[in-house]
Design goal:
heterotrimer; B: alpha/beta; Rossmann fold; five-stranded antiparallel beta sheet; 12 helices; about 35% helix; C: mainly alpha; MetI-like fold; two-stranded antiparallel ribbon; about 80% helix; about 0% strand
C-alpha cells in the first residue's frame, strides 16, 4: 500500500512537471520572439526613423508614411465596424426574439469570424475596388478591414451588454420607458466602457493585418502621405513584409525590418494595454455598482 | 382608531398608528361604524375574467377571476410557484417580455381591456407601477433615480422635476433621510432606503395602481416595518396589489386577501375573513401553516 | 412614438441582417468571379494531376492539387505542434495551476494571440529558418516544417483557451467520484477528465486547424512557396492562401488568371467553412452532453 502509494504520487509529480514544462515552453517561445525583436529593433528606433519617409530605395530613412497609413486605415475600419458592430449587438441582445432569423444572424457572424483574411482581401477587391470603383485605396482597404473586424466587435459589444443587470431593464420598462429609452439611458451607459475594451482589441488585430490590404490599397512605396480616401497608402505590416521578403537588398534593410516589427508590436501592445486598463477600471466601477 | 377595534376579530389590527386620510379605509372596514356615516362605493379598479397564462407549454395560471378594488390594499398569498407573481406582472404586462408566453381571458382596468390591440403598453406601465422584490435602483444619483420616470415622459423643466422629486420622496417617507444628499449614488443607500427610493421612483410617474412583488423579502425587520407603514399610508391614494410570502404581513396591511395555489385562485375575501374563517379547507391549511 | 420606436428597432435589425448579407456577398462574389475560370478552364482542370502554372507560354495549367496538399501539410503539421502543447497547457491551467498562476499566465498567453502574423513570419524567417537549416543540415530552413511551427505558435492561444474551457466544463462530480476511489489527481485527469473533455478538445483542435489553413502572411514568408509536389516537411510548399497573396497583386484584373485565383479563394473558403462548421457541431454537442 505505501510503496504503491509512493510510486503513484511520484508519477503524478512527474506528469504535472511535464505539464508545467509545456506551459513554460510556450512562455519561453513568446519570450524569445519578443526579446529577439525588441533587442534588435531598439537600436534602429530614432526620431528620424519615426518621423521620416524611407529614403535611398528604402535602405535608409524612416517609416513615417507607414505609421500614418496604418493609423488612417484602422480609423476607417473602426468607422465601419464600431457602429455596425454595436448596433448588431444591441439588436441581438436587446431586441431579437429566439427564432430562426436570430439563429441565422448568429451563424453568419460565427462563419464570418472563420473566413480567412485573404478571402476578405478577395472580397474587398471584387466589391470595393472593382464593383464600387474605388480602386486600390485607403477607403477600400479600410472597409475590408472593418468587415473583418465586425464579428469581434459584435461579440465584445454583446458581452458588455450582458454584464448589465436585468433589473435595470425591468425597472426602466416598468416605469413606462420605451425600449429605446430604456436601452439608451440604462443599458448603454454602463456597457460602454466594456464595449470600448472589445472594440480596441478588435482594432489592434485589424492594425496588424496584412492579407486583406495587400490588393485593396497598400502600396509598396510612397514617399508622401495619402491625400484622400481614394489614395493608396503605406502600412506598417505590409512595409515589414516588403522589407523582409520583397526588397532587392534584404540583408541591408534587415535592421529597418526589425525596427518596423518593433514599432508594429509596440503599437498593437499599446492598444491591448489600453483595453486591459479600461477593462480593470470598468470592472472596479461595476463592483462598486453592485 | 376606535373603529378598528370594532372588528369582529379583536386580534386583527390592520394598522398600528393613526394616519391622516385613513378614515375612509376604516369606514369601509366596518359597515356598522357610524363614524362619518359615509362609505365610498367599492369600485373595481381591475377586473380579471377567466384568465389563463402559459410559459411555453407550461400553464402558470388557470381560470382566474379576481377583481381588485380601488384604493384598497389587496394581498396575494400562496406558496412559491403558485402563480401570484405571474398574476401581478400580467397587470402591467411585464410578462410580455418573456418569450413564448401566452395569455387567455380578459384583464380590464377601468373597464378597458389592457390586452386590446389599441393599448399603448408603455402608457399602461406608467399607470401601473411595479416595485420589485430586490430593490433595483439605477446606477445613478438619488435625484436622477426619482427624476428618471418624469424625464422619460417628457418633463424637462428643472423646477417641475425638483417639485416631483421632493413630493415623491416625501410620499415614500424617504425625504428626511436623503434631502441633503441628492447627488449621492443611489447605491450608497441601505437596502430599506433603496426600496423606498424605488417606491418613490414609481410614485414620481403618478401611477394609479401600485404592484409590489414581495417588496420586503430582502429587508430586515425594521426596514420592513417602515415599508409596511408606507403601504398603509399610500393606500388612500393608490390601488395597491402586493404579493407576499409573509402571512402576518398580509394580515397587517391588506384589506382584501387572495389565496393562490398551483396556478389557481382558491379563495378571495376580506383579509379579516380569510385569516379567521377561511371558506376553503386548503386556505385554512395554508394559513395555519400545514403546508407552504 | 410607436413609429419612432419601430424605426429605431428597424435600424438595429438592418445592421443584424447585414451580417447575413456580408457572408452571402462573400460567397456570391467569390463564386461569380470564379465563374469565368470554371467555365473556360473547367472544374476538372483544377483538380486533375499537374501543376499550377496559369501563365505558361505553351499550355497553362491550373491544377491546385499540390497546393491543397501543401495547405494540409502545414495545417496538420501545425496541429501536431499546437495540440499536444496547447492541451498540456490547458490541462495545467485548468487542473493544476493555482488561481494566482492562472491569473498571471492566461493574459500572457493572450499576448501571443496579439502578435501580428507578419511579425511571426518575420521571426520565422530570421530566427527559425537558420535554426532549422543548421539542425537538419539544409541549405535553408524555409519549408513546410518552419510554416508548421510558426502557424502552430499562432494557433496555440486558440487551442489553449478553447481546450481549457472544455476541460473546465467537465462536471466536478466526475472528478470527485474518481478521487473518492483513491485515484490521484493525475490519474483522474488522465483517465476521467481529459477523456470526458475529448470532443471539446477535438473541436478546439479543428478550430485551430481552420485558423491555420486560413493563415496567409506567416506561411507566405516561411514556407518557400514552391509549386512542386511536396514529399516531406523539409520541402518547400505553397498554400492556397499564399498562392493568392503572391499572384493577385500581379495579374491583370479580369484575366483568366485573375478569375482562377478566385477559384482558389473559393476552395479555401469552402474548406475553412466545412472545418469551422464541424468544430461548431462538435462543440454544440459537447456542451449539451456536458450540461446533462
Amino acid at each position: 500500500m505505501t510503496r504503491k502509494g509512493i510510486s503513484k504520487y511520484t508519477r503524478e509529480k512527474a506528469a504535472f512537471s511535464i505539464l508545467r514544462i509545456s506551459l513554460f515552453l510556450v512562455l519561453l517561445i513568446l519570450g524569445i520572439i519578443l526579446y529577439d525583436i525588441a533587442s534588435k529593433g531598439l537600436g534602429v528606433i530614432s526620431w528620424e526613423f519615426l518621423t521620416q519617409p524611407p529614403r535611398a530605395g528604402m535602405t535608409a530613412g524612416g517609416i513615417f508614411p507607414a505609421m500614418v497609413g496604418t493609423f488612417y486605415v484602422t480609423v476607417l475600419a473602426a468607422l465601419l465596424a464600431v457602429p455596425l458592430g454595436i448596433a448588431t449587438a444591441i439588436y441581438l441582445n436587446e431586441y431579437a426574439q429566439k427564432g430562426s432569423l436570430t439563429r441565422l444572424i448568429r451563424i453568419s457572424l460565427r462563419n464570418l469570424a472563420g473566413v480567412p483574411s485573404i478571402v476578405f482581401g478577395l472580397f474587398g477587391v471584387a466589391l470595393f475596388v472593382q464593383k464600387f470603383g474605388w480602386g486600390a485605396s485607403l477607403l477600400a482597404a479600410g472597409m475590408t478591414l472593418g468587415l473583418l473586424t465586425l464579428p469581434v466587435t459584435v461579440t465584445a459589444a454583446e458581452e458588455a451588454l450582458k454584464t448589465v443587470p436585468r433589473s435595470y431593464r425591468e425597472g426602466g420598462l416598468a416605469l413606462g420607458a420605451t425600449r429605446w429609452q430604456m436601452i439608451s439611458t440604462l443599458v448603454l451607459p454602463p456597457a460602454i466602457p466594456g464595449m470600448l475594451t472589445g472594440v480596441i482589441l478588435g482594432l489592434a488585430r485589424a492594425a496588424g493585418e496584412t492579407a486583406p490590404i495587400l490588393f485593396t490599397g497598400a502600396a509598396f512605396f510612397l514617399p508622401f502621405l495619402p491625400g484622400s480616401p481614394f489614395s493608396q497608402f503605406m502600412a506598417l505590416p505590409y512595409h515589414l513584409f516588403v522589407l523582409a521578403t520583397q526588397h532587392h537588398d534584404i540583408s541591408t534593410v534587415r535592421p529597418l525590418a526589425y525596427g518596423t516589427a518593433l514599432v508594429l508590436l509596440v503599437l498593437v501592445f499599446l492598444l491591448n494595454l489600453g483595453a486591459i486598463v479600461l477593462r480593470y477600471r470598468f470592472r472596479g466601477h461595476l463592483q462598486k455598482g453592485r | 382608531m376606535e373603529a378598528t377595534m370594532n372588528l369582529k376579530d379583536k386580534d386583527f389590527v390592520p394598522f398600528k398608528e393613526e394616519q391622516p386620510n385613513s378614515s375612509r379605509v376604516v369606514v369601509y372596514y366596518d359597515p356598522k361604524s357610524n363614524g362619518t356615516g359615509k362609505r365610498p362605493a367599492r369600485k373595481e379598479k381591475v377586473k380579471v375574467e377567466k384568465l389563463a397564462f402559459y410559459y411555453g407549454t407550461k400553464q402558470a395560471l388557470q381560470n382566474i377571476n379576481l377583481d381588485i378594488i380601488a384604493n384598497e390594499v389587496t394581498a396575494l398569498i400562496g406558496p412559491s410557484g403558485c402563480g401570484k407573481t405571474t398574476y401581478l406582472r400580467i397587470i402591467n404586462r411585464m410578462n410580455d417580455l418573456i418569450p413564448g408566453s401566452r395569455i387567455e381571458g380578459k384583464v380590464l382596468i377601468d373597464g378597458e381591456d389592457i390586452y386590446g390591440p389599441e393599448v399603448d403598453v408603455v402608457e399602461l406601465r406608467r399607470r401601473v407601477g411595479l416595485v420589485f422584490q430586490q430593490p433595483n435602483p439605477f446606477p445613478k444619483s438619488i435625484y436622477e433615480n426619482v427624476a428618471y420616470g418624469p424625464r422619460i415622459h417628457g418633463i424637462r423643466k428643472k423646477s417641475l422635476l425638483d417639485e416631483i422629486v421632493e413630493e415623491s420622496l416625501k410620499q415614500a417617507a424617504l425625504w428626511d433621510e436623503v434631502k441633503d444628499r441628492f447627488k449621492d449614488s443611489a447605491l450608497s443607500l441601505s437596502g430599506g432606503q433603496q426600496q423606498r427610493l424605488c417606491i418613490a421612483r414609481v410614485l414620481a410617474v403618478r401611477p394609479e395602481i401600485l404592484l409590489m412583488d414581495e417588496p420586503t423579502s430582502a429587508l430586515d425587520p425594521v426596514a420592513t416595518q417602515r415599508i409596511e407603514d408606507l403601504i398603509r399610508t399610500l393606500a388612500s391614494n393608490y390601488t395597491i396589489i402586493i404579493v407576499t410570502h409573509n402571512m402576518q404581513q398580509a394580515a397587517r396591511i391588506s384589506d382584501t386577501t387572495a389565496f393562490f395555489l398551483l396556478g389557481e385562485m382558491v379563495e378571495q375575501g376580506k383579509t379579516s375573513q380569510i385569516f379567521t374563517r377561511p371558506r376553503d379547507r386548503r386556505t385554512e391549511e395554508y394559513i395555519t401553516g400545514r403546508f407552504g | 412614438m410607436n413609429i419612432k420606436e419601430n424605426s429605431i428597432k428597424m435600424i438595429f435589425l438592418a445592421s443584424g441582417l447585414l451580417s447575413i448579407f456580408i457572408l452571402l456577398g462573400i460567397f456570391y462574389l467569390l463564386f461569380s468571379n470564379s465563374f469565368p475560370a470554371l467555365r473556360d478552364v473547367g472544374i476538372k482542370s483544377f483538380f486533375s494531376r499537374g501543376y499550377w502554372n496559369p501563365t505558361a507560354y505553351s499550355v497553362p495549367q491550373y491544377s491546385i492539387l499540390n497546393i491543397i496538399k501543401g495547405t494540409f501539410m502545414v495545417g496538420t503539421g501545425s496541429l501536431l505542434f499546437a495540440v499536444p502543447l496547447g492541451v498540456a497547457c490547458a490541462a495545467y491551467l485548468a487542473e493544476v495551476a493555482s488561481p494566482r498562476e492562472r491569473e498571471i499566465f492566461k493574459p500572457i498567453i493572450e499576448i501571443l494571440a496579439g502578435i501580428p502574423s507578419v511579425v511571426l513570419g518575420f521571426f520565422g524567417l530570421v530566427v527559425v529558418a537558420p535554426l532549422l537549416s543548421s539542425v537538419f543540415g539544409l541549405p535553408n530552413g524555409i519549408n513546410a516544417l518552419n510554416g508548421s511551427i510558426l502557424v502552430g505558435i499562432m494557433a496555440l492561444p486558440t487551442v489553449v483557451s478553447l481546450a481549457e474551457d472544455a476541460v473546465s466544463a467537465v462536471p466536478q462530480e466526475y472528478r470527485h467520484a474518481s478521487l473518492a476511489l483513491g485515484a490521484t489527481r493525475w490519474q483522474t485527469l488522465k483517465n476521467v477528465t481529459i477523456p470526458a473533455a475529448f470532443s471539446g478538445v477535438l473541436a478546439a483542435s479543428l478550430l485551430g486547424m481552420g485558423r491555420a489553413i486560413g493563415e496567409t502572411m506567416t506561411v507566405l514568408m516561411v514556407t518557400g512557396n514552391a509549386l512542386a509536389a511536396p514529399s516531406s516537411f523539409m520541402d518547400s510548399v505553397r498554400t492556397l492562401s499564399a498562392n493568392i497573396a503572391i499572384e493577385m497583386g500581379e495579374v491583370p484584373m479580369g484575366s483568366l488568371h485573375f478569375h482562377s485565383l478566385f477559384v482558389v479563394g473559393l476552395v479555401l473558403f469552402i474548406i475553412t467553412f466545412i472545418i469551422n462548421l464541424l468544430a461548431d457541431i462538435i462543440f454544440d454537442r459537447y456542451r449539451k452532453g456536458v450540461s446533462m
